[in-house]
Amino acid sequence: MTRVAIDGGQVETVVLGAGDPIALVPTALTADELLPLAERLQGRFQVVHYHRRGYAGSSPAAPPGSVAEDAADCARLLAALGIGRANVLGASYSGAVALQLAVDHPDLVHTLTLVEPPPVHGPADAEFRAANAALLADRQARGAEAAVERFLLSTMGSDWRGRLDVAVPGTSAQVRRDSRTFLDVDIPALLGWPFDVATATRVRCPVLHVSGGGHGPYFDGVGDLIHAWLPHAEQVTIAGAGHDIALTHPDALVEVLVPFLARHPVD
Fold first, then answer.
1. Is 223 within a domain?
2. What span, in angstroms and rounded, lies between the C-alpha atoms of 19 and 4?
3. Rounded distance, CA 11 to CA 52, Å?
4. What CATH number should be reported for the domain holding residue 69?
């Protein structure tokens, strides 16, 4: 990766392959969660894979964080790379960032793919916020790394280190190093993100929403939320996948993503 200067900071970036550009907006906690997808897409597309501020070797991020600022950073990065229009994909937290990018920079976003976007503003919003409040309380009581380890133990099981490192070697150590960004920057950013039906009307591009068939109760109503926001969005469910589709089912994700992008080539 090389470090690209944007707005007083630097973000680690690699551009893979050639063809229509697709920007993979990095999610929270797992800096390289979209790397397996990037590697599979590089034979057909020009793939922009990067680390947001506060992750890996990019510049630090200052709390409390902002979804809109993360979206602005993505726009600045694409401009620095000379990319004027791109397909954009976000997963989990970065689904919010990608949505905000499509609102704030509609001429930049050619298509929008949302992979397991977050449940804020949806039917499980209150439960999701309560779970995050408990996580942040644990961070205050025991420190960021300990809180993240307990979070991953509860969400991925006792073999969370092995599962992460099989998908992307070194990831278990990286999530511990980036735990403060996740807890102090990204979670407050997401919980403070304003978005509604009126805002969604500003999304003008084709949209694909991909969900996992086994993603858990917080995300069960997200499909209805996306339909309310974006009635024109295509919706696909990947059977057997959980919330971390990009890590566990990258091949299945490619199978639904490539035909969608092929129907909407970048001029």
1. yes
2. 21
3. 6
4. 3.40.50.1820
